[in-house]
# Entry
Amino acid sequence: MVNLIQQQSASYIGKLVQAKALAEGSPAHATLHALLATGGAVASNQNISASAIGGAKSSLLTNLFKTDSDATQQEQEAKLNLLAGLVTGIAVAVGQDPIEWQALYCRTHGTKHPPSDPPTLNQAILWIAKLGGYLARKHDLPPGPTVLWRGFMALHEATKMFQIMRQSD
# Structure
């Protein structure tokens, strides 16, 4: 029954997009899919946050897969790189690979001991952005793809070092 309701709801969201009442990949579109996934998770007793992230990501990532006739090959490659970085960030934030979020926490907080619980998605993205040079001042815009990419590169190195240091513990 839950699957049927979710399928019908997703179909309705698709009709809203076709009728141009909702832009595909927009924040509103992503929010509707996140709410739909969350409702399904509650009804089937599954992880709510992971379901919401899964529901929203498909909508938001749609724009990264769209072919832009005005984009250069380099711009298209940059979109794919951003996509790879976002997927990595989501995996870090929801604790798919504990060593990465633990390394991220320790690197950004200057400690050897990570907490037992993984960070939220917003915390992880902010920490990754800060590794990439984002200052996070009140008047700053949200971090962009270049800063996030630099942060992911720094996280990769921090994770390797964290693994090496853990081997001696």
User: Anything to note?
Assistant: DSSP finds seven helices and no strands in the chain. Residues 145-167 form the longest helix (23 residues).
